Amino acid sequence: MKRWKLWTSVVLGVVMLLVLGGSYNLYRNYKSMLKNISVMEEENGQIEDQKKDVIEPFAMLTYGISARKHLNDPGHSDTMMLALVDPQEVKITLISIPRDAYVEIPGYRTDKINSTYPRGGPKLMISTIENWLDVDVHAYTSINFQGFIDLIDLVGGIDVNVPRRMVYSDPYDGTRVRLEPGEQILDGKNALDFVRFRKSNDGRHDSDYARMERQQEALKALSNKITSIRSIPRILNMMNILSDNVETSLTPKELEQLIRIFITFRPESLETHSIIGGGHYINNGWYEIVTEEEVERINTIINDFFSKSNDI
C-alpha cells in the first residue's frame, strides 16, 4: 500500500468514527499514534496486527443538534441515526430515524422522538430507542451545526444532486436556504441547508424520508471526499474541528481501538437504511406513525447484523 493511500485510509476511517464518535480525548490519543502509523509498511501482517485487540460489535446513537446560542435554544435532535458498528468486519450500518416518529418515552407521554433531547438529553434518547427497537445502545455521539459546516468546508465541499429548487427563509432564527436543482458541490452552509430542508416558502413540503435520504447522500459524499486528503496538517485541522463540536460517551480506550481497526475502512462498507412510517395529525400535531411490522423489519436488520458478526 502506498504511503499516501495509507494516510487517506486512516483519515477516512478516523473521520467516519469521529462523525459517529469524536472528542478531545480522541484528538489527544490520535496525536500519539502518528509515529506508529508513519512507520507502517505495505505488508498486510502489520495492518492485521492492529486488529488483535478487537472490541465486540455494538450499536451507537448518533445525532445532530440544532441548538442556537443566540436564541437561548437548547436544541432538538435534528438528525438521528442508529449506527451499528462491526470492528471485526470493519463495517458500519446506519439506520435513519424520523424525527417525528411517535414513540413511548420512558417517564413521559407518547410524543415525537426528537423531543427526548431537551427533556433528558442522550440518556433519555437512548432509553427511548432501546425500548422501541429492542436493542442495546452502547454509546452516543453528537455533532452540532457549526461542526458540520466546518468539516464540509475543510474537505472543499461535497458533491450532491439537489433534486429540486429549495428556497426558505425564517427571520426569527436567521435561516436562509436557496439551492437550485442539479449536481453541484456544496460548501458547509449550503450542505447543512441541503440535509435540513423540509419546507419551502412556496408551501411545498418535503417528507422526513426525503430529508433522511439527503442526509445519507451527504454522509456518503463526505466519505468519498475524505479519500482525497493527503495532508497531515489538514488531518489535524479536522481533529480540532471535531474536538470542538463533537461529544461522545465512547471511552478514550474504545476510541483508540476503533481508530486502529478502522484504518482499513472503505466507503462501500457503509450501509444505510431508514425507518418508514406514515404521517398523521394527532392532538393538533404532525407525527410519523411507525407500524409494528416496520419495527419488526428494523429488528431483523439489527439482529442480522449482529448474528452475522457473531458467526465470524
From TrEMBL:
<dbReference type="Pfam" id="PF03816">
    <property type="entry name" value="LytR_cpsA_psr"/>
</dbReference>
<feature type="transmembrane region" description="Helical">
    <location>
        <begin position="6"/>
        <end position="27"/>
    </location>
</feature>
<dbReference type="InterPro" id="IPR050922">
    <property type="entry name" value="LytR/CpsA/Psr_CW_biosynth"/>
</dbReference>
<keyword id="KW-1133">Transmembrane helix</keyword>
<feature type="domain" description="Cell envelope-related transcriptional attenuator">
    <location>
        <begin position="76"/>
        <end position="227"/>
    </location>
</feature>
<keyword id="KW-0812">Transmembrane</keyword>
<dbReference type="InterPro" id="IPR004474">
    <property type="entry name" value="LytR_CpsA_psr"/>
</dbReference>
<keyword id="KW-0472">Membrane</keyword>
<comment type="similarity">
    <text>Belongs to the LytR/CpsA/Psr (LCP) family.</text>
</comment>
<protein>
    <submittedName>
        <fullName>LytR family transcriptional attenuator</fullName>
    </submittedName>
</protein>
